[in-house]
Design a protein that fits this description.
single chain, four-stranded antiparallel beta sheet, globular, seven-stranded mixed beta sheet
């Protein structure tokens, strides 16, 4: 059974930072393309950043230069470092393998 469990969200002020983590099990993590997506209230799901099995990454223009995706294949974990957070980054953040995703972790940016 594929399991994806996100944690690390919280309330942060504009300009602050957070590190999201995703613990995975039930599949060959090291060979999987993984990504983070987010959903703000009243909006659709938005792809944020993705990472290939070889470590190459890509991020959406809206977060490029502020967010960094990484992975630890030995621990089957996925990470998302969020820096210079903005109010518009407020959303539920999901770790995904394909269309499978976890329960999400809430990031709220507010002063």
């Amino acid at each position: 059974e594929v399991q994806l469990v996100e944690f690390g969200g919280g309330l942060v002020q504009p300009g602050g930072s957070l590190r999201l983590s995703c613990a995975t099990s039930g599949f060959d993590f090291s060979s999987a393309y993984m990504n983070w997506a987010r959903q703000a209230p009243g909006k659709g799901l938005e792809w944020v950043c993705g990472i290939n099995s070889d470590g190459t990454t890509a991020c959406a223009y809206s977060v490029k230069g502020r967010f960094t995706i990484s992975r630890d294949n030995a621990q089957s974990k996925l990470y998302l470092q969020l820096n210079s957070l903005r109010i518009e980054d407020t959303a539920m953040y999901y770790c995904r393998r394909g269309q499978e995703r976890g329960q999400g972790t809430q990031v709220t940016v507010s002063s």
